[in-house]
Fold each of these.
Amino acid sequence: MIMDRENVDAGKLGDRALSGLQSRLLNRRAFLFGSAGLAALGLAGCASDYMSLAEAEKVYGPVPNEKFPIPGVDVSKVDPKYFRKTVRYDSNEAPGTIIVDPGKYYVYRIEGEGNATRYGANVGRDGFRWSGDAYVGRKAEWPTWTPPKEMIARQPEAGKYARGMPGGLDNPLGARVLYLYQNGIYTLYTIYSTSAPETIGNGITSGCTGLLSQDMLDLYSRTPVNTKVIVLPA
């Protein structure tokens, strides 16, 4: 009887242990599935942070009604984090102010109420960056590009355009340009439009800031002369 009781007790213990094990397995399974669900939600959240390629192909599609029709951007050459986006951006600057952040390769247009439109950009390469306050002294569509004498000295091949390169798709300034001034004097720096998507997110210029043509059309249309521009340190 003692043996029987021990066997019964052992059986009860086994049942309880099995029940506990099953419970733990179920809890673990629920945890794993729950974690997977949370991870999926997290990935979905990350995915929705940026414009999809399908949407980007529309936003950065061809612009046929321009003086020189602008082709669509090969968006596969642009990191999605540089696609145009409305973001939270705390600033005391007035709506319309442009803030260039060369360290992050972004240009912001302050929209007010803690929001800004953010554009991906290319910026000045090492040794050619600058920072400070300026303003839009003038603006132009399909501008003539005249390389400064300092550039011609560094790159003699640019000398053939010393009298100006007419506007067009091959013009380095592209479809639109904002000329930056300080105290009534042109700084030689601009915010311009580029048709080279692979340059976005890189330091490649002599100090100017380039946006994709479609982004520059958007910024240009909402930026009057005398708009304040702040260029942050890199």
Note: The chain has two domains: 1-49, 54-231.
Amino acid sequence: MKEFKLILLLSIVLASYGSSWSQATISLDMSQDWTRRDWSECEDASIMSSDHHKLTIATERSAALYWQVPTKQGPLGIDSSLGWVEECDRPPRNFAKTVADGPQRQSLLDVSDYRYFTWKWNVTNTIDDANTIDANGRIQPDGDDFAAKLGISILKKGSNELREVSYVWTRNLPEESVLLHEKTILFWRFRYHRIVAQTGDKQVGEWVSEARDLYADYKRIYPDEEPGKIVRIYVMSDSDNTESRVTGTFGDLRFQTTRPGNVSPSE
């Protein structure tokens, strides 16, 4: 009887440990629940394919991104019958608040818990970035293309204000540069920041692994704020503004509570 109780207790401890360990890393299934966003009402020429481990976007003078809301239980379901989803449009301005206040809000990832983000990517080529930025590091409309881009939308802690940290692969721009993209939509002015996580042609056609300190990157861009819940992640390849072509592939996207090796920016 004592042996049975000991085995039962050990099983409970191991089960608890296993559950805790599994939640320490949130891995995205690349085949599930990605919503398309393009600027041509779903008629853009970009083509997406995916399996459980990777997602590929092939572009030819085109641009499209694929996004989801990651949670501890898997991607949040998005109603595909909504008009803006059917038209591959951007989510409405209250989308982040709706997600943060929704029934699955306890399952959302918080940057304070899931501070580290890792992934791997592969591109067929880089895109000419001679005209990507001006002298002040602002992205120019005619050069706003990247072989691969990955973005994470984060709510400012304690508010419904939306922030974004994104990473790009460029041809010649220095790694760890922070590029500024400003745009106006109707009455609203938006500011986006792109961190150059990879640059150059040396590893074109190869899988390149990345490990980022998402909290540190957020603080680089918004030094007076604290990050809160993650309400969206997207992957993108685009070549429309430069009238070029590129294929980008993304895999092994993971949010982690523990620090991986070779993380950037280094402390």
Note: The first helix runs from residue 2 to 24.
Amino acid sequence: MLRQYTELEIENIAWELLRRKPKVRACLPIDVDLLLELQGISLVVVAGLIPRFSIECCAYQLHPNGEVIVAIEKFIADSRSEPSYRQILAKVLGHLTLHKEVLDQTGSIEDYLALRSSPAWPHMEHDAHRFAVSLMAPEELVAQAAAPLYAQLITEQGFGELRAIEQQLRNCLATTFLVTTEQIHQRMVRWPCQIYQRVRKSVSLGSPQLLPLDSGQVAQHQRRLFLSGRES
């Protein structure tokens, strides 16, 4: 039976993976290619995945030696923007991390295609996407990066239009973490980062420093997410 993950669990799993790889965590943006290598996963560039199989990337395990292969379309590797390329790899790594028991049964591209046709695939994709964003823009590192960037924006521009401050901070963070503006936007909106809420609180209080949210509210929201996942 496919395991059901809460948002809190996915956040923790992604961070634990990075915590065990200090070499990857030490430099931004997170080096997804290096992380795959350190996990013992072989990345191969394959021409024709899209025209032949209608997929950009896939993962499977070679039997009997157990080598895990991630194959990515050559056109994607050569031409896609860096944030998009990284997101594709991080999502496949999410599948390999969250759904290892299922992926262990795939021994070829054809097996991976069959898995994509299963009823469980949409839920697996949702969790893998959430993992990818959590991995590329970890909450702790996003918070660390956002604070000095916010302070710099206020120092240089003052407390101008709130929306402009939010957009500039979003763009700076997207560049820092080498993700799309949409990905970092979702990170800034949602738990656990909630950077926009912190910006609004800081601007409303006229603070040149990025203020934290009320710890009680954060803990309550964290618990609600955890319990809602358990009850679903």
Note: The two ends are 15 Å apart (CA to CA).
